[in-house]
Amino acid sequence: MRTFPSLTRPATLCGLLALTSLLPFASAQAPASPAQEIRNQFTDVHRRLLEMAIDFPADKYDYTPQKGVRSFGEVIIHATSGLVYAAKKGRGENVKWDEPNTGLKTKAAIVAYIQKWNGEALTSLKAVPDAQFTKDLSPWLEVLEHSGEHYGQLVAYYRMNGLVPPESRPKK
Asked: What's the mean per-residue pLDDT of the chain?
């Protein structure tokens, strides 16, 4: 009958610990490519902004922390200007990043606006060949950075209204 070494022996225990320490490396995936990373980050921040636009109470869309600062709804419209720019630039259009004068006032209209341009920007982003991201990250990186700034601003608006942002809520 074959016997196995005791797990109480220091050498056996050290060997098992060494093997188990390698497990994370055995299952690690290759790092994301620049194209995958930009697409993932761009998609994620805009998913969060859209989720906030949908979630924030309609009666608080005019909330502003003080006079002279954009309201919640105005920040969503402003952040969407980046999506408009990215969608058009990504399609190869000659476009400037302008502040939109949408005239949108209701939550429903603002949500529809961000949904439309989020979809168009993601369609443009998906059409960019992966190799392009090793040469030029424009317009994706600047829009990603801009949207991240406004995401943080809207988190503060949630907190100032006694609300918990969707991303900070416990996951079910």
From this structure: 87
Rounded to whole angstroms, the Cα distance separating 38 from 136 reads 11
Global pTM exceeds 0.70: yes
Residue 53 φ then ψ, to 5°: -60, -40
CATH of the domain at 82: 1.20.120.450
b/e 55-77 (16+ beta carbons within 10 angstroms → b): ebeeebbebeeeeeebebbbbbb
Amino acid at 12: T
Query: Residue 150, SS3?
Result: helix
Tens digit of each residue's pLDDT (9 = 90 or more) over 114-126: 999 999 999 999 9
Which stretches of the chain score pLDDT less than 70?
1-28
In this structure, what DSSP letter does residue 101 have? Answer: -
Total structural domains within the chain:
1
